[in-house]
Each structure stands twice: as structure tokens, then as C-alpha cells.
Design brief:
By secondary structure, the protein is mainly alpha-helical. It has a domain of 241 residues. 67% of the residues lie in helices and 2% in strands. Strand 2 and strand 3 form a beta hairpin. The protein is globular and about 65 Å long. It starts with 15 loop residues before the first helix and ends in a 5-residue tail after the last helix.
Length: 369
């Protein structure tokens, strides 16, 4: 045996410049923004209004969902048109806990949520059993999207459903779930969903301090998901996923079974969406079945496509660009937003297949990484 052979080292997680950017992001999200909001006067440029804090935090939740979608679409070649389902499931689990926190402060002064009292319910449904526990809620935020994704993915991937057929099935699954959640007898608030949240862990939600705390938590979670995804895609697991995307048949001939790889990344992607939805609900103040609509899932695809799929930072950038434009355009000219969104997706597909990140790389002369 030749003792001079060297085992190649895995590529570093981040370059020195990348770590610098991450530390700066951590400093800004975890320290600078909260400190400036506490120290700067309300009318100062350095003070973020409650609206700005909520808007940025909401977009960060969307960025998590776009990043989750990129793991299965950009790196595994599986286009999902139903990730809004997992986002909503995480949101509903958190919403159930927040509704239980209202307690006797609600309109009907009952331990049951207001909509249940209005519908003359006498007891909580079985699926609300653990909704009063914050620890159980955190566990269910992970387990519920993971369980639904695993069961669906196992049968779909084992049957070798792929391409447009898989996309259609995910869309049908999400639409069926939306119709189920619209029904009042299911105990999810019908078309109104859950709203009017007042407390979390016994502390009031509608305070600047709590909004900032949720903002920081959301930002740190997004940064953590990004680093996890980057580590995962640079590992052997990630390289196999990319091989499945490019030539699944060759991967099978090489002795790898694609099923556990696809099922694992599919389930992980669903969990990331569920966590994003759980962070979204207390900051926005509402969750209803519209989060499972076809349009909501397609918008996630647009975010990833605009930013640049298979780049990790691209979907995050795309979520901020598209939702920033949406916030501005729905105020200035709300009737043109959907036309703009459709034109944006078509334009990116035709002229910017690698998205904004790919365009920036070409302008910098780096080419495709």
C-alpha cells in the first residue's frame, strides 16, 4: 500500500469572507438592531418602527421557506408546489398554543377558544390535547410537518413519481388540506383561522420588546438554517443529492438507493418550513387556510427562482427582493401585483435561469460555481 496517498479534505464550510459576513449578520441581528431600537428616539432614522420590525421578520420567515424549497428543488431536482402546506402546519401548531394562552381574556371568558364557544363546543378536540404546553408545541412544530412529509414522500418516492407528476400531486395534497382546514367541524377555526393572539409564555405579544425578541429569534434561526444547509450540501450526502438531480439512473447503477436520500431531504425541508410558519404566526398575528393556497406555494417557487436556485443565498435574496417589491407595490398599485409577479417569473425563467445570484456572478466574472 502506498503510504504517500493523501485523503482529500472536505471543502471548508465558509471562506474567511463568508465567516466575516455571517459574524456581521449575527452582530446586526442579535445586537445592533435591538440596541439601536432601545437607544434611538422613535423619530430617528436609526429606530425601526413596529411595522418595519414585523415586515422584516415576516420576510425572514419567507426566506426560510424559500431556502427549504431550494434544498429539494435546486439541489435534488424535486419541484414541490405544495410547501405552503408545511409552512401552514407549523403555523397552526403555534396558533393552537397561542389560542390556549388567551384563556379567559377572550370575548366569551371561557377556557375554550372563542370560535369553539361560538360554535357551541363543550370540550377541546383530541388534536388540541397538547396545545396548552409550550414544550409539546415546540416538539409538534417539528413532528407534524415531518410526519406528513415522511408518509407522503415515502409512498411517492417509492413509486418513483417524479417531474411534473410529483409537482401536481403536491399541489393536490395542499389543496385537499386547505379544504379540510376550511371546515368548521375540524376544529381549526374554519375560513377565519386563528387570530387575536395576546400572550406567549404568559408575556404580552403586542409590545416592542416582544416584537424585537421574535425578530432576533427569527434572524438567528434563518442564519442557523443557512449554515446547516451549506454544511449539508458540502457533505457526501449533499453530493449524492446533486448526483440524483443530474442523473438519478446513474446513481442507482453506482449502488446508491435514491429513496432514503430523497426522503430525508424532503422531510428536513418540510421541518424547516414548519419552523418558519411557527415563527411567522406570533409576529403576523393570524393563521388561516389561505396559507395553504396554490398561490402561496407557487410564490415560494418564485422566490427561489428569482434569487437563484442551487445557491442557498439566492432563495434568501429572492424572498427579500420579491416580498419587498410586494409590500411596496400592493400599496402603490395593488391591482398590478399579480401581473408583476407572473411577468417576473416568466422573465427570470427565460432570461435569468440562474437568478439574481447567477447574474451577479457573471458580472463579477466568476462564472458558475
Amino acid at each position: 500500500m502506498n503510504s504517500n496517498l493523501e485523503i482529500p479534505k472536505p471543502p471548508p464550510l465558509l471562506s474567511r469572507k463568508g465567516w466575516t459576513v455571517c459574524w456581521l449578520a449575527l452582530l446586526v441581528i442579535g445586537g445592533l438592531v435591538p440596541a439601536m431600537n432601545l437607544l434611538a428616539p422613535v423619530d430617528s432614522w436609526w429606530h425601526l418602527s413596529d411595522y418595519a420590525v414585523a415586515l422584516i421578520a415576516k420576510i425572514m420567515c419567507y426566506a426560510m421557506a424559500a431556502l427549504a424549497l431550494d434544498l429539494i428543488w435546486g439541489y435534488t431536482g424535486i419541484l414541490s408546489l405544495g410547501h405552503g402546506l408545511f409552512f401552514a402546519l407549523g403555523g397552526y401548531v403555534m396558533g393552537m398554543y397561542l389560542m390556549r394562552q388567551i384563556g379567559r381574556d377572550g370575548n366569551y371568558k371561557s377556557d375554550l377558544p372563542d370560535f369553539m364557544v361560538f360554535l357551541d363546543w363543550k370540550t377541546l378536540p383530541w388534536h388540541w390535547t397538547f396545545s396548552g404546553s409550550f414544550v409539546a408545541t415546540l416538539i409538534l412544530i417539528v413532528l407534524v410537518p415531518a410526519g406528513v412529509a415522511w408518509v407522503f414522500g415515502f409512498f411517492a418516492f417509492r413509486s418513483r413519481i417524479k417531474g411534473v407528476y410529483f409537482s401536481i400531486i403536491t399541489q393536490a395534497l395542499t389543496f385537499a388540506a386547505m379544504l379540510l382546514f376550511f371546515r368548521n367541524e375540524t376544529g381549526f377555526g374554519g375560513n377565519n383561522g386563528f387570530t387575536d393572539f395576546k400572550r406567549i409564555l404568559g408575556m404580552p405579544l403586542a409590545t416592542p420588546g416582544m416584537r424585537m425578541a421574535l425578530f432576533v429569534l427569527t434572524g438567528l434561526t434563518l442564519l442557523g438554517f443557512y449554515l446547516m444547509a451549506r454544511w449539508l450540501m458540502r457533505s457526501k450526502f449533499g453530493r449524492v443529492l446533486q448526483a440524483i438531480r443530474d442523473a438519478e439512473t446513474r446513481v442507482m447503477f453506482s449502488g446508491y438507493n435514491p429513496l432514503p436520500y430523497k426522503l430525508t431531504i424532503w422531510t428536513l425541508s418540510a421541518v424547516m418550513c414548519g419552523v418558519a410558519g411557527a415563527l411567522y404566526v406570533p409576529q403576523v398575528g393570524i393563521i388561516n387556510p389561505s396559507e395553504m393556497s396554490t398561490a402561496a406555494s407557487i410564490e415560494m417557487v418564485v422566490w427561489a427562482a428569482v434569487g437563484g436556485r442551487a445557491s442557498l443565498i439566492g432563495p434568501i435574496l429572492g424572498a427579500f427582493l420579491v416580498n419587498g417589491a410586494k409590500s411596496w407595490l400592493t400599496v402603490v398599485a395593488p391591482e398590478f401585483w399579480l401581473y408583476f409577479l407572473g411577468a417576473l417569473f416568466i422573465g427570470v425563467t427565460l432570461f435569468l435561469p440562474t437568478g439574481v445570484v447567477g447574474l451577479l456572478k457573471r458580472l463579477r466574472g466568476e462564472g458558475r460555481s
